Amino acid sequence: MQMDKNKEILLWRAEVIRMYKLFDDMSTAGDMYKPEHTNYVKHVGKLVEDGLNNGIITSDGYNLYRKE
Fold first, then answer.
1. What are phi and psi of 29, to 5 degrees?
2. Domain boundaries, position 22
3. Percent of the residues in the chain that have a pLDDT greater than 90, as a whole number
């Protein structure tokens, strides 16, 4: 059974939003809790920042936008 194309697009859009929010929440948690800067914390922080900065989505803090 093939999924309706519009439904598939909506599901992918919802997943992109969910993943961006996860990266953003992880970045915010690092700012809020000021964890000890172990190698693990540094590595995860870099992965999160790379995820936020190198994707096609950006945010103004309230809404998500596709980078042009």
1. -60, -40
2. 5-66
3. 81
